[in-house]
Amino acid sequence: MAPFFELQGWVKKVYRQGPIFSEYLRRLERSANYGPDRLRRLQNIQLKKIIHHCYFNVPYYRDLFRALKLTPQSFQTVDDLQKIPMMDKSTVIDNYEKLVAWKRKNILCRVGSTSGSTGRPTAFFRDYESINFENASVWRHWRQAGDFGKKRVTLRGEIIVPAKQASPPFWKYNSANRELLMSGYHLSPDNAPSYIHALLAFEPKVLYCYPSTAYLLAKFFKYSAKQYCFDSIFTSSESLEPDIRAFIEETFESRIYDWYGQAERVAAIAQCPSGQYHIQEDYSIVELIKTSCGDELVGTHLYNFVMPLLRYRTNDYVTSLSENCSCGSAFRIVAKILGRNYGYILTPEGYRISIMNHIPRGIDNLLETQFCQEKQGELIINILTNGKFSEQDRKRLVQNTLAHTSPRMRVIVKEVDGIPRGPNGKFVSIINKLEAVN
Ligand SMILES: [Zn+2]
């Protein structure tokens, strides 16, 4: 199996890091230093190209532009995007066939998908160029943090070994990236010693992970009194809460550089070495639309020609800041990224509570906590412990939950052997099954 796995790693590298990748990376490292005017010029040039393509090759936009009496010449600058309406996931579902530029659809295209709270999966095509562009954008982020291809451990949602495998190794070496790919699914109290042993033996410099997998790994290191320092840690794909960040950074004596993206690839936000979150202005065109939940990220592709999305509502929200960053970047800064499709718990009083991460705070011996509501007035807390969770810990957990939800809530604490991951291996902290009946 190993040679086949290795081969896969090299094929992926050749596909995602070809000559186009290198050219994109060069360009992106230049535009990282552009001022606002030059960035806007770059966006305008790229926008005109994609609009021209949409008009002639994408049936959905051809019909839309004709209905609005618009031609490619109607779009000279980013501001002209206001001439067309915003679209969202339901637009994509309803117009799927018409949104694909079929002449650009080929064997090198890939599909990304989202499931979302509605349970209707949506597929998004990405072409070879846009995948290489995306990869170059992520590499720029890594390089800005000082990682030019260091030895790394990746602990995310990919299937590395079969789910039913019960004994180590739960990892494989990918020589193409000098990377130890570890399974996020098998990281449990029982398997923790073997993970720690393998990681210490490998001596990685950087860690690529979800916040939830890094947090769990950090807890295992802490409980086993083992120490390890990374040069840097890169997180993405899940919300990174301040207390989780602080715990991981303290345990591994390392800085976290967080990245925000989405399956649709219409907006990216990266944390710079000064610690600020910057909208990647040369990745796409991002509008911030004021709503009661915060500013919604609305993005326009500049590089995906097989299924271009124009003014796509991400249903992700940020709080924006109008400040300059000490790193010198002209990219806009956001103060906080509010995750998508927040789960919530409904109290007997009818309040919706979506922030639950402070409930387990300060309670020892807890590794993972998941809040699950199936009935009104009742809350099940699934907990993964280190085996030393006491009756007193349980009482504190229940008390905290009552204090932060409602004193009338019936709380059931269930110790479990593992908490199954959601789509793409992401940790889901709140599951609300009431949604189905509401
Ligand atoms: Zn900065």
What is the number of beta strands?
20
- Mean pLDDT over the full residue set: 89
Number of helices: 10
CATH architecture of the domain at 345-436: 2-Layer Sandwich
Cα-atom Rg, whole angstroms? 23 Å
Q: Tell me which ligands are bound.
A: zinc ion
Helix- and strand-based class?
alpha/beta
Strand fraction band?
Answer: 15-25%
Can you say what the CATH homologous superfamily of the domain at 345-436 is?
ANL, C-terminal domain
Sketch the topology as an H/E string, one letter per element: HHHHHEEHEEEHEHEHEEEEEEEEEEEHEE
Helix content: 25-40%
Order of adjacent strands in the largest pleated sheet: 4-5-3-6-7-8-9-10-14-13-12-11
CATH topology of the domain at 345-436: GMP Synthetase, Chain A, domain 3
Biggest sheet features = 12 strands, mixed
Form type: globular
The CATH class of the domain at 345-436 turns out to be Alpha Beta
Distance separating the two termini: 48 Å
Unreliable spans are: 115-120
Task: Compose a concise summary of this entry.
30% of the residues lie in helices and 24% in strands. It contains ten helices and 20 strands.
Commentary on this structure:
The chain is an alpha/beta fold and about 450 residues long. It has a domain at about 345-435: ANL, C-terminal domain (GMP Synthetase, Chain A, domain 3, 2-Layer Sandwich), CATH 3.30.300. It has helices spanning about 1-15, 20-30, 35-55, 60-65, 90-95, 130-145, 190-200, 210-225, 240-250, 390-405; strands at about 110-115, 120-125, 150-155, 170-175, 180-185, 205-210, 230-235, 255-260, 270, 275-280, 285-290, 295-300, 310-320, 335-340, 345, 350-355, 365-375, 380-385, 410-415, 430. The strands form four sheets. The protein has a twelve-stranded mixed sheet, with helices on both faces. It has a four-stranded mixed sheet with strand order 19-18-17-20. It has a two-stranded antiparallel sheet with strand order 1-2. Residues about 115-120 have low confidence and may be disordered. Bound molecules: zinc ion (ZN). Zinc ion binds near residues 272 and 327.
